[in-house]
Write a structure and sequence with these properties.
GO terms for molecular function: metal ion binding; oxidoreductase activity. This is Fe2OG dioxygenase domain-containing protein. It contains twelve helices and 16 strands. The chain is an alpha+beta fold. It has a single domain, classed as Jelly Rolls (Sandwich), CATH 2.60.120.330. An eight-stranded mixed sheet has the order 1-2-11-8-14-5-4-3. It has a four-stranded antiparallel sheet with strand order 7-12-9-10, with no helix packed on it. Strands 6-13 form a two-stranded antiparallel sheet. Helix 3 packs across helix 7 and helix 4 crosses helix 7. The radius of gyration is 20 Å and the shape is globular. The protein starts with 7 loop residues before the first helix and ends with a helix.
C-alpha cells in the first residue's frame, strides 16, 4: 500500500490557515554559525512563549523517511484485528507499548478522580494506536508483532525512533541556548532517551457523529512530557487553543515540516515561560465539492476521511527533578510549580488514560 498525499491545492489552502503557529527554518540551527544558532534558538523560544507550538522545516529528517513511516503505519493498521492483537498493549498505563484497539484509550485533561474518569470513558476516543520506544528501555520493553506478520516493520520503526531522538536532543540544545544555559544541559537530562513513538489511525466515521459529540477522535488536552514532534498526513483536523482568545484554530500540516509543541513537564520546568497548549483532533475540513449532489439525509451520513498521524513524545529521565530552570524565575524569584520527578508526574498522567 503506497502512502498517497493530497493535492497541491489542498496543501496550499492548509498552509494559509496556519499563520498563528510560527514556521521556522531549522537548517540554520543544524548547519549555521553560532550566531545563526542563537538566532534560531530565539525564534523557537519566542514561538513556545507565545503559542507553545512551532513548525520546523528543514529539520534533518528526510521527507522520504517520514512518508515511509506513514506507509508502514497504513500497512500495520490494515492488518486483521487478530493479527494486530499479537502485539497487545498491556492493561493500564504503566507499560505504554504495543497495539491498542478502538475504544481502549480516553485522553483527558486534568481529570484524575476515578468517578469522573469512568464517566468520560463512556465515550472513548475513536482511534487505534501502536506504541514503541527505546530498545534499551528496561522499564517499558517494546512489544512487537512476530516478524513474519509484517516483515521489516520493527526494523524501520527502530531506525525512525533514532531519527526522531536526534531531533529532540537538537531542539533541547536550542532551548538551552535560548536560556543562556550550557547547550547540553537539557539534553543531558534526557540522556536515557526514554521516548515514545506512536502510530495513530482514526478510521472513517460519519461526520455527524463527531459534530454532535456522540463520538470523539481526541478531546482537548495538553501533552504531559517535555516536547512532542507531530508528523501529520494531509487530512487535517488538528486544532490548538488560541492563547489569547481561547478559541480553537486549525493547525494543519505544512509541507516538509514537523509540528513541535511543549508538554506540561517542560512548562513546569520553565516556570511557565513556555506554554503547554491545549489541542484536540476533530472532524477534518471538507474537501472542495465534497457535499455536491448529496441529499440532506445522505449528507448526514457523510463519512470523514480516515486520518493518520505520527507523534513522538519526549520526557526527561525518570529521576530528573523538574523545578524552575535558571533564568525562568518569576518576579521576586517566584516559582509557580512544586518540584517533582519526571517519573512521578508521568505516572500520574498515564494512569488517567486507561481503565
Amino acid at each position: 500500500m503506497a502512502y498517497e498525499k493530497s493535492t497541491t491545492e489542498a496543501r496550499s489552502s492548509s498552509i494559509s490557515a496556519s499563520n498563528t503557529v510560527p514556521v521556522v527554518d531549522f537548517s540554520r540551527f543544524l548547519l549555521g554559525s553560532d550566531v545563526d544558532k542563537r538566532a534560531i534558538a530565539r525564534e523557537v523560544d519566542e514561538a513556545f512563549r507565545k503559542v507553545g507550538f512551532v513548525y520546523l522545516q528543514n529539520h534533518g529528517i528526510q521527507e522520504q523517511k517520514v512518508d515511509e513511516c506513514f506507509e508502514w503505519s497504513q500497512r500495520f493498521f490494515a492488518l486483521p484485528e487478530g493479527v494486530k492483537k499479537l502485539a497487545p498493549h498491556p492493561p493500564g498505563g504503566s507499560h505504554h507499548r504495543g497495539y491498542s484497539g478502538l475504544g481502549i484509550e480516553k485522553v483527558t485533561q486534568n481529570v484524575f478522580e476515578q468517578e469522573e474518569l469512568a464517566a468520560l470513558r463512556q465515550m472513548p476516543d475513536f482511534k487505534e494506536s501502536f506504541e514503541s520506544g527505546n530498545v534499551h528501555d528496561q522499564m517499558q520493553p517494546n512489544i512487537w508483532l512476530p516478524d513474519e506478520k509484517l516483515p521489516g516493520f520493527r526494523q524501520f520503526m527502530e531506525a525512525f525512533f533514532l531519527d526522531c531522538t536526534d531531533l529532540i536532543h537538537t531542539i533541547l540544545n536550542a532551548l538551552a541556548i535560548s536560556l543562556s544555559l550550557p547547550p547540553s544541559q537539557l539534553s543531558n537530562a534526557h540522556s536515557q532517551s526514554l521516548f515514545q513513538l506512536r502510530l495513530l489511525h482514526y478510521p472513517s466515521i460519519p461526520r455527524s457523529l463527531l459534530h454532535s459529540g456522540e463520538k470523539s477522535r481526541i478531546g482537548a488536552h495538553s501533552d504531559f512530557g517535555t516536547l512532542t514532534l507531530l508528523f501529520q498526513d494531509d487530512v487535517g483536523g488538528l486544532e490548538i487553543q488560541h492563547p489569547q482568545t481561547g478559541e480553537f484554530i486549525a493547525a494543519p500540516p505544512v509541507p516538509g515540516g514537523v509540528l513541535v509543541n511543549i508538554g506540561d513537564l517542560m512548562m513546569r520546568w520553565s516556570n511557565g515561560r513556555w506554554r503547554s497548549t491545549v489541542h484536540r483532533v476533530v472532524a477534518p475540513p471538507e474537501l472542495k465539492g465534497e457535499r455536491e449532489g448529496l441529499e440532506d439525509e445522505e449528507a448526514g451520513k457523510e463519512m470523514c476521511r480516515p486520518r493518520y498521524s505520527i507523534p513522538f513524545f519526549a520526557t526527561a529521565d525518570p529521576e530528573t527533578v523538574i523545578e524552575c530552570l535558571p533564568g525562568c524565575e518569576g518576579p521576586d524569584g517566584k516559582k509557580e510549580f512544586e518540584a517533582m520527578t519526571a517519573l512521578e508526574y508521568v505516572q500520574m498522567r498515564m494512569a488517567a488514560l486507561y481503565a
